[in-house]
Amino acid sequence: MDLVRLLSTFSSFLIACVLGLGLNILFFSPISPDILEFPSPTFPVESNSKLQEVTKLGEGLLVKPEDVAIDKSGILYTATRDGWVKRLHNNGSWENWKFIGGESLLGITTSRNGGIIACDADKGLVKVTDDEVTVIASQYEGGKLRFADDVVEGSDGSLYFSVASTKFGFHDWFLDVLEGKSHGQLLKYDPESNQVSILLDNLGFANGVTLSPLQDYLIICESWRFRCLKYWLKEEMKVKTEVFIDNLPGAPDNINLAPDGTFWISLIQIIPSRLKFVHRSKLLKHLVVAFPGLVNKINGAYKKAMVAKVDTDGKIIKVLDDPTGKVMSFVTSALEFEGHLYLGTLNCDFIGKLPLGII
Description:
One of its GO terms (molecular function) is hydrolase activity. Helices cover 13% and strands 39% of the residues.
């Protein structure tokens, strides 16, 4: 009799724990998820392992060099997750150029007046020159500018930049993917008025941004929508926004204009193919968030690397990859300069350099 009573008490306790956990997961979860559909890529991707042939620049000196910029004199810049902006001189020497601090430096671009502009997910837009480091935009619409992700400068000095998520912070970026709701933005900084304005809202994790060869439109990447949008800057255009390319074989991260007028897009695998079912269940998404260790298990970005070259009509010309992450993985940017492709990454301690003549 005592054993029956003990088992009954234990069963009641176990049920109460399960119910309590379930209620906690559902009602105190940081996400309010939608179902995320994965597109079927329209471009047949055949692995070529070309990204395994890179030369490793600065190996061991760089902490997660996400983005790369190169000025007119050929000096290469990168911002690393230990708070440094570092640069590679033409003689092959690396310089710890400017210390900004923190671990939230993201996209960078060269500036027409010298130096670079950096996106700092905590501080906002930062101008870095030989003389100083200046935060040029940290507020907009009466609130703090947070999670600035990538930036490009126009010929008139205007800065066009993305905000990846207005809900989730830099360290919780994957929660935005799990939630599957549109919290991203495309913004413009006007240097004359010192004001920030919204060009596009409700984007699916707004990421890389670049200008067209004639600077008559912008391309903005929506990572978990697996597409890039074209935003026309011409006032006479009746339709300001259209899809530039969709159904990409990976989530677009950064995008850069190539010298021939095409575009290089880095593509990340935000979830392994075998775990896509997680994004088709709201309950499973809540469960993943409740156990943070599971988040790393379903993030597939560390398993491979891929970049695509796309023409001005939004057609993929070629794809380069490291299918197993043997040499490079989590490649977040691809910049072409003088016949080579320079690759930023969040999972390597170097920048990859690939001669395009071998492709």
